[in-house]
Design brief:
With 381 residues, this protein is mostly helical. Among the domains are: 62 residues; 189 residues, MetI-like fold, CATH 1.10.3720. It has 15 helices and no strands. α5 packs antiparallel against α6. It is globular and about 95 Å long.
Length: 381
């Protein structure tokens, strides 16, 4: 019998070939892999070489950063009047109106209240987003149950604070209020609607289907009009509903219908064996959904969930049609200020609003990608 040898240690990994790593390898794989890629890359580089210097010049070099009225943006600071009669971007307009873009017409002396709400929101949201942070249950209760009550008291008033009616609210504050409440409400309601649509009870299934299909079949503008105009008709005489609350109801209803279909897609992707395995353990329906099925379904549809949240965050700008001024609405409202009426003021304001929306949406997108990597078990690669 011959001697045998069993290796007890693994060989160290060899480094990848030099041509398969680094910037050069990335360029070869993604930009010049085929003749078509080479042509498209050359066209893109040519366009960027032409557009970027002009954009940079308009946004930063010729831009006016400080000023008190439109005269500062009608001419340049560096050399008199431009050949076309106006300067680069009018950031002086954004600087002068910045507080209004954030708080709307909220009283100046009371703006510490929304600032405090924003600080509390960040302090509770950050640990909620960190997977390794402890006491998630307590954190969730404080963020989703306690904070909305505290925020309402601080923003609206009462208990010794001056009352600030919601028509005075505006700007980024309204955008964040609408989107946060919409997200908090639409997620659990969407789960219930998705489960209802898959229910074996005909009444529950039919109600869920009708709700989802009707809401998804109309634009958000229609839902907002319904919430603003039709909803008060169903209230007793003398009763009224705050306009902000109507907008929150409309946005939440609309987002819930879309969220339901996203969650239902995740439920349909779960293998039948998972349901049977949960039944074999003697779990009840809600135990099965809470412990076995729903965690897997939500993990599968994280991109769809975040996509719905991003769409809802951007759609809050439509509340301007019911005379509410979110970030975009308050920016557009200030275009009518004759003190800042120039050819570049509207474009500068829209660029600022677009960048603010992009910043929040990009943040949600990056966190979504992080959570996908964190929860990836190797089956979805």
């Amino acid at each position: 019998m011959s001697d045998s040898f069993v290796r007890t240690t693994m060989l160290s990994q060899e480094p990848p070939p030099s041509g398969e790593k680094g910037a050069g390898a990335w360029i070869r794989r993604n930009l010049i892999a085929t003749p078509k890629d080479i042509v498209l890359t050359l066209l893109a580089v040519t366009f960027l070489a032409w557009a970027l210097p002009h954009a940079f010049n308009w946004l930063f070099v010729q831009a006016v950063w400080t000023g008190t009225d439109r005269t500062f943006c009608a001419t340049t600071v560096q050399g008199g009047i431009q050949p076309d009669g106006w300067s680069g971007a009018c950031w002086a307009f954004v600087n002068a109106k910045f507080d209004q873009f954030i708080y709307g017409r909220y009283p100046l002396d009371e703006r510490w209240r929304p600032t405090l709400v924003g600080i509390l929101f960040v302090l509770l949201l950050v640990p909620m987003l960190i997977p390794s942070a402890p006491r998630k249950g307590l954190n969730a209760i404080l963020l989703f149950l306690v904070l909305p009550i505290v925020s309402f008291v601080l923003l609206y008033g009462g208990f010794g604070l001056e009352i600030v009616d919601t028509p005075l609210w505006g700007g980024l504050m309204v955008t964040l209020v609408l989107s946060f409440v919409g997200i908090v409400v639409s997620f659990p309601v969407g789960i219930l609607l998705a489960l209802g649509r898959r229910s074996h009870m005909p009444v529950i299934r039919m109600v869920s289907i009708v709700f989802i299909e009707v809401v998804r079949g109309v634009p958000l503008i229609t839902v907002l009009f319904m919430a603003s105009v039709v909803l008060p008709l169903f209230l007793p005489a003398g009763w009224t509903v705050d306009k902000l609350l109507r907008a929150i109801i409309g946005v939440s209803i609309f987002a819930s219908a879309y969220m339901a279909e996203v969650i239902r897609g995740g439920l349909q992707a779960i293998p039948k064996g998972q349901f049977e395995g949960a039944d074999s353990l003697g779990l009840g329906y809600w135990q099965k959904m809470r412990l076995i099925i729903m965690p897997q379904a939500i993990k599968l549809v994280i991109p769809g969930i975040v996509n719905t949240f991003i769409g809802m965050f951007k759609d809050t700008s439509l509340v301007s049609i019911i005379s509410m001024f979110d970030l975009l609405g308050i920016v557009r409202l200030n275009f009518t200020d004759a003190n800042w009426a120039t050819a570049v003021t509207p474009l500068t304001g829209l660029i600022f609003a677009g960048f603010a929306f992009w910043l929040f949406c990009f943040g949600m997108s990056r966190y979504s990608a992080f959570m996908e990597r964190h929860l990836d078990t190797g089956h979805t690669r």
